Amino acid sequence: MKPLKEVTIAVALCERNESILLIQRKDNNPMWDKKWEFPGGKIETGESPEEAVKREVLEETGLNVLEASFFHLHHHDWDLPETILRVHLHCFQCQVGEGEITLEEEKAYRHAWATLEEALAYDSLSANLDILDFYITCKSIERG
């Protein structure tokens, strides 16, 4: 049995004008390279998930989070050659300020603003698709 490595992450569904922000990941692992994902990253020691999501969005996009609302805790396992990577994703709906996107060149190829339905068609990380499906379901229930 492979060893288990666990990581806690905060991710943001950044909304602006009825669209959400997606980032195309740049990664040495071909399983993750060129896949689309939401901005986010590891929660640092002593940091709350909300603080982490605001910091990560700013670092990864240059955008300020005006409001962050927690909506889901998602768990996902990645079966890697040497270990099982279990990620615990704290998911936030975020309103972001105006401004141009400034990506971290070493971590991302490009970005896109997409409607929720359009976002489903992107070649995204499987965990992100699960989160997006859950989010769309919540939005549908919200609308009645």
Put the structure in a nutshell:
Helices cover 24% and strands 42% of the residues.
Overview of this structure, please?
The chain has about 140 residues and is α+β, with helices and mostly antiparallel strands. The protein has helices spanning about 50-60, 115-120, 125-144; strands spanning about 5-15, 20-25, 35, 40, 65-80, 85-95, 110-115. The chain has one domain: Nucleoside Triphosphate Pyrophosphohydrolase (Alpha-Beta Complex), CATH 3.90.79.10. The protein is about 25% helix and about 40% strand. Strands 1, 2, 3, 4, 5, 6 and 7 form a seven-stranded mixed β-sheet that branches. A hairpin with a 2-residue loop joins strand 1 (about 5-15) and strand 2 (about 20-25). The N and C termini lie far apart (about 45 Å).
Mean pLDDT: 94
Strand fraction: 35-45%
Cα radius of gyration in angstroms: 15 Å
CATH topology: Nucleoside Triphosphate Pyrophosphohydrolase
> How many structural domains does the protein architecture include?
1
Number of helical segments with 4 or more residues: 3
H/E series, N to C? Answer: EEEEHEEEHH
Quickly give the structural class: alpha+beta
Q: Please report the total strand number as a whole number.
A: 7
- Low-confidence runs (pLDDT<50, min 5 residues)? none
Task: Report the sheet with the most strands, covering strand number, pairing sense and barrel closure.
Answer: 7 strands, mixed
Described by the principal axes of the CA atoms, the overall outline is globular
Mind telling me the CATH class?
Alpha Beta
Helix share of residues? 10-25%
The CATH architecture can be given as Alpha-Beta Complex
Q: N-to-C terminal Cα separation, in Å?
A: 46 Å
